[in-house]
Amino acid sequence: MKFTILTFFFVLPFALGDMRVGFYSSSCPRAEDIIRQVVQRHFNQDRSITGGLLRMHFHDCFVRGCDASILIDSTNGNASEKTAGPNQTVRGYEIIDNIKRTLEQVCPSTVSCADIITLATRDAVAMAGGPRYNIATGRRDGLVSNALDTDILPGPNSHVSEALKIFISKGMTLNEMVTLLGAHTVGFTHCNFFSNRLNDTNLDIDLAAKLKKTCAKNNPPPVFLDQSTPFVFDNQFYNQILLKRGVLLIDSQLALDPSSKGLVSTFARNGDNFQQRFADAMIKMGNIGVLANTDGEIRNNCRVFNRRS
What we know:
This protein has a domain at 160-278: Peroxidase, domain 2, CATH 1.10.420.10. It has eleven helices and two strands; from the N terminus they run ααααααβαβαααα. It has helices at 31-45, 49-64, 93-106, 113-127, 160-169, 174-180, 205-215, 236-242, 249-254, 261-269, 271-285, and strands at 188-189, 223-224. The protein starts with 30 loop residues before the first helix and ends in a 24-residue tail after the last helix.
């Protein structure tokens, strides 16, 4: 099957605080090129990093805002977001570490970890065939990371109405929620997140049988959320869930709930529309709760807060 990869370019017409497109053009002109090059090396070795980075970015922004608090390692005195249940299977930390080490050699104490997550995710989406878009930078890194704060994250067994309350609390709409969940087109999950619904009548019989065999294995492998084109950022996820092939309950519910099924059908028919909407939604999500100007800090190591006197 041949796929046509379309390219979209979006530019924010305004600045948030001191945030703007090309924020590092003077202070670290090579920043975005360096981030893209490191992501490309990892992508060439493992195309699943797109889904991993998307999940990291989403889990970061929806807790304390897009402040890289998800990257902090726990200490004896603090259990960080990274150790919380919803983040146990988040992947891609080594990519962020590699980017940060390289940038610190070129432009010390200049590029924030929050911007690295945002830009690395954008680049990984484009590498998988998704939209290309410009995004404002100038985020600063947060000074708090607490495992208990992750309770807000929607779970794989959420219903549409439950997940929507969380998205609305972050300033996002129903349309944007359905759009952002389209990121599952390049994601995968594990049996413990869906094994309770293998006899669900809203799950395709053949897929259910396949998943039962997979989950019966010792150390079962991950399961793709898009059973058609799992490494291509396209609209096939929406076609899959309309055919009752949504692995997670929340995915299945998107195609069943009266409030969301219309947009699911629209995206299933029109991949170009989905890609444009996705870029817009990612730009908006990337501005949730950002720290800018003199708030927060620029971490020297993304895993630890800077030492302060």
